[in-house]
Design brief:
With 219 residues, the chain is of the alpha+beta class. It is 23% helix and 43% strand.
């Protein structure tokens, strides 16, 4: 069970990486007309429910999505009605942090490291636009992505109510559905995740890559 959820979070990291690289590939793309109106430093907190599917396997998680414009995207995932902490994915301007609460492991990588591993440039601003509803919809040879809807904030601002992503490669397919609700402007949260390095083991980016390869082989 523990390994299953570690794989789950690593899969989410891979999906976000593919999303950020999509602009470098040939894509059929539909621009979503939205009025942003958000300023640097604006903070939003939302409830988050996510379902990952691959073949006949499906895992559902709850949690929260917290964002500070042009600074941080923080997703905390929980499991079951007891809200057991599963893990945290935190993206800032200079690094990608993944923390597995259940296995007491974490990895922190620069975007240069991630870009070198993927062979594609990846940056925080590329990923941020999808969660603020500014990424449009589209399809490439390996993936498709679309919004399930938008909710109105004040002053004509909008936020996505959900994002659906499908990844297909080498005869395998996986779907990630992220549903968002109850958005509110809120800055009263820890905008950087602190890790007790005496209690957590650090994984290298290469170790994470090998785990992702194992996921693909097991699907």
């Amino acid at each position: 069970m523990i390994m299953r959820y570690r794989y789950l979070l690593l899969t989410l990291v891979a999906v976000l990486s593919l999303m950020s690289c999509s602009s470098t590939r040939k894509a059929v793309r539909q621009t979503i007309p939205t009025t942003s109106g958000w300023n640097a430093g604006d903070c939003v907190t939302q409830r988050c429910n996510m379902v990952l599917k691959s073949g006949n396997r499906s895992v559902s998680l709850g949690g929260s999505l917290r964002m500070k414009r042009d600074d941080v995207i923080q997703m905390n995932l929980t499991y079951g009605f007891l809200n057991i902490g599963v893990g945290t994915l935190e993206l800032t301007q200079d690094s990608v942090l993944f923390v597995s609460r259940m296995t007491k492991q974490y990895t922190r990588s620069s975007y240069d490291e991630v870009s070198q591993l993927l062979g594609k440039n990846i940056g925080f601003m590329d990923i941020q636009k999808y969660f603020w509803g500014e990424g449009g919809e589209g399809k490439t040879a390996v993936m498709s992505w679309k919004y399930s809807g938008f909710t109105d904030m004040d002053n004509g601002r909008k936020l996505p109510t959900g994002l659906e992503v499908n990844v297909s490669a080498s005869g395998h397919s996986a779907d990630a559905t992220i549903q968002l609700s109850n958005p509110r402007e809120d800055s009263e949260w820890n905008q950087r995740t602190k890790i007790n390095e005496k209690s957590y083991d650090r994984l290298t980016l290469e170790q994470v890559a090998r785990l992702l390869l194992n996921i693909v082989n097991k699907i």
